[in-house]
Amino acid sequence: MSITAPAGFRAAGVAAGLKASGGRDVALVVNDGPRRTAAAVLTTNRVQAAPVVWTRQAVSDGAARAVVLNSGGANACTGPEGFADTHRTAEHVAAVLSSGASTPDDEVGAGDVLVCSTGLIGIRLDLEALLGGVDAAAGSLAADGGADAAHAIMTTDTVAKTAVAERDGWTVGGMAKGAGMLAPGLATMLSVITTDAVVDPAVADAALRAATRTTFDRVDSDGCMSTNDTVILLASGASGVETGLEELTAAITEVTASLARQLVADAEGASHDIAVTVRNATTEDAALACARAVTRSNLFKAAVFGNDPNWGRVLAAVGTVPPEVAPFDPLTLDVSVNGVQVCRAGGVGEPRELVDLAADREVHVEVDLHAGDAEVTVWTNDLTHDYVHENSAYSS
Amino acid sequence: MSITAPAGFRAAGVAAGLKASGGRDVALVVNDGPRRTAAAVLTTNRVQAAPVVWTRQAVSDGAARAVVLNSGGANACTGPEGFADTHRTAEHVAAVLSSGASTPDDEVGAGDVLVCSTGLIGIRLDLEALLGGVDAAAGSLAADGGADAAHAIMTTDTVAKTAVAERDGWTVGGMAKGAGMLAPGLATMLSVITTDAVVDPAVADAALRAATRTTFDRVDSDGCMSTNDTVILLASGASGVETGLEELTAAITEVTASLARQLVADAEGASHDIAVTVRNATTEDAALACARAVTRSNLFKAAVFGNDPNWGRVLAAVGTVPPEVAPFDPLTLDVSVNGVQVCRAGGVGEPRELVDLAADREVHVEVDLHAGDAEVTVWTNDLTHDYVHENSAYSS
Fold it and tell me: Which residues does the annotation say bind substrate (chains A, B) (predicted)?
């Protein structure tokens, strides 16, 4: 069900011929209201794909009627022609959705349609195929179409990612794609979150940003940030239940946390999911900087692939964070790997042989800075032969 | 010859049993004067190995008589005991070198001895073996011992790295080790540079820093900075020729540039050496930030391993640099790979099929920011199966 779990939404996912595999590659999500509240968090990369530029503008009024998403092409670095393709896609969706309109209020404008694309950079989309896919998707929109839509946005993903959070009288649903290039500030990752709660646009925006900050922004597969990352929230109000910022944030966070964890678990070529927790930092930003230094250390990530609890590489990574960002005394650092304190006070702790990394896919690294009381966890993956293979053999 | 090319130096490299391979693992370099000028550039990592802490203090007076270096153990994260080991090593070198002293001026103190270590973090050194190696090295010091010393500091290096710059009446020689973990702010890299020029300590320090900034600091194999990085300059004055800052910097830069290029060429598991040049930036710092963003992109480096000139990944990497660091308009970016302009004005340029990456080990990527006139080149390597293998199968 995913995005169609909340009331007021229809979705579809069809095969339009954009993906060489012939699989589903165009998804359409329609908010039937009564409200059309929308918010979006978009990549902070300065090189932004055409659909990101379009969606930023289209969502700025806090409202949207539909989202069209395609895999099989990112429409990034495609110049003015690429932007025209996105514009034409939105116009086509608007026309198709308006064709059955019985009142002026049912008319959909291009500015009510958000657009997401994912796939290879620097290649124009096959617009004819895409527009044909929009027609087919519009024709198969269904109140239980969430699963098909989730499949249509997959690229190198091996499984579709969906999640639902049930509340008293209202629901949040979500879908996401992404199996690599996950990075802070978002990743090559598309996600649509839906809710039937009655939500003010400003509250929707704040809740989505808060949930993204502590979930999607804290998975970092390979430190690379993409040109297309987009997280969209649509709220239909169909439940009639009003929610406040706090409860909405909590429900969205439940969904995005689940989706983020699924993204890590399906990261390209990974054999371990690694949670790096930094404790007792002076601030959340300090903890985050130290955690990210570890999650971006190729040497540490390669060691985990070799089932080696190499705490020296953890220390070497944490030691690159400037003191003004994260004050700590290197001679007090403790490091535990899967509960074994292999480093104590910056030196040798328990024998590393006590750590068994081969037994589980999950690895938990904990770094204690002894400097304050802030704590952050960032998820990443190990660096494997398969990661290199997937990212060298295939363009993306 | 390398470090013994300039007059006034003797060196040796012996096998002391620290390396499991049984190869040479202890090097000794002695400056016989008449001057004992010294300078050092040390890792900026906050987690610093015992020999780094020792050497920073010992060189602070601008003078040193000898450098002792060992492979087979980094003596990092080894606590007060590890520092005591370094201290005792320096004392032992001083005692051995003083044993033949005929005048008080020939007496060597522990503070005249700089220490470097490289190898696994978090393991105490076999001090008895190391001190035995010092005795053996002192007994085999020779005016042509540079090659043996260069071999004794190798870890995963496949070849010894040496370089010489000849000037009118004076010479600069150098050796370096390092085959991975090369990163800005230095790397798991040890280097000793010697000269027989007559040099003021302040000039020696300034020249070494300037040469390091534009050479060693601009190779970045995997973005990881080590706890032990050390570059040492010793000046004997034996040529009797006085040099100024500019000519000394130029000669040292010639040596360190050659050594840096050799380090990249021997990087662990690499199949391509990649020069990323960023042109027409507003400042050198802006160009450097953009170049480093590219050299740290695992996705781009994996693409090069696959001989794929994936300019989209170059743009995505450059796009992560904040505008306040490097002002540029993403819609004006040009990217060339081996002279083919595959990206023009942020969009598609020449066909990527025109680029042949399989033919050469060297790859030249050029990014034009169209924002100013500063230019920087940073060298890195591709991300390969062998990199993952070497850094997962072996601790370091």
Answer: 155, 177, 188, 268, 391, 396
Query: Residue A84: which H helix or E strand, with range?
Result: helix A79-98
Across the A:B interface, residue pairs with CB atoms under 8 Å apart total 198
Q: What is the pLDDT of residues A134-185, one digit of tens each?
A: 999 999 999 999 999 999 999 888 899 999 999 999 999 999 998 544 443 3
For the record, the structure tokens of A27 come out as: 């998804």
With contact defined as beta carbons under 8 Å apart, do A90 and A66 qualify? no
CA dist A13 and B166 (Å) reads 70
Which of B299, B350, B352 is the best residue to mutate to test the A interface, defined by the most A CB atoms within 10 Å of its own CB? Answer: B299
d(Cα B369, Cα B192) in Å, to the nearest integer? 37
* Predicted complex ipTM: 0.83
**Can you read off the two tokens belonging to residue A39?**
């918010």
Residue boundaries of the structural domains of chain A: 2-265, 273-393
Give catalytic status of residue A194 as yes or no.
no
**Residue B19 annotated as binding?**
no
H/E segment holding residue A257: helix A245-265
Cα angle for residues A139, A142, A147 (degrees, 5° grid): 110
The answer to whether B364 and A361 have CB atoms below 8 angstroms apart is no
Sign of the torsion formed by the C-alpha atoms of B13, B174, B272 and A385: positive
Residue of A127, A148, A128 whose CA lies nearest to A137: A148
Would you tell me the crossing angle of helices B79-98 and B50-58 to the nearest 10 degrees? 50
Q: What phi and psi, each to the nearest 5 degrees, are found at residue A23?
A: -80, 180
Check residue B64 and report its DSSP letter.
-
- State which amino acid sits at residue B186: L
Q: Are A375 and A288 in contact (CB under 8 A)?
A: no
pLDDT at A393: 65
| A374-388, B322-336, B378-392: which is most confident | B322-336
CA B9 centroid distance within chain:
21
**Residue B5 in tokens:** 């090319």
Which secondary-structure segment (H or E) carries B263?
Answer: helix B245-265
Contact B49, B83 (CB under 8 A): no
For domain A2-265, give the fold.
L-amino peptidase D-ALA esterase/amidase (3.60.70)
Higher-confidence position of B353 and A219 = B353
CATH homologous superfamily for the domain B273-393: ArgJ beta chain, C-terminal domain (3.10.20.340)
CA B241 to chain centre: 27
The answer to whether the CB of B61 falls within 8 A of the CB of B101 is no
Nearest Cα to A396, choosing from A165, A81, A182, A95?
Answer: A182
**Among A8, A74, A99, which Cα is nearest to A230's?**
A74
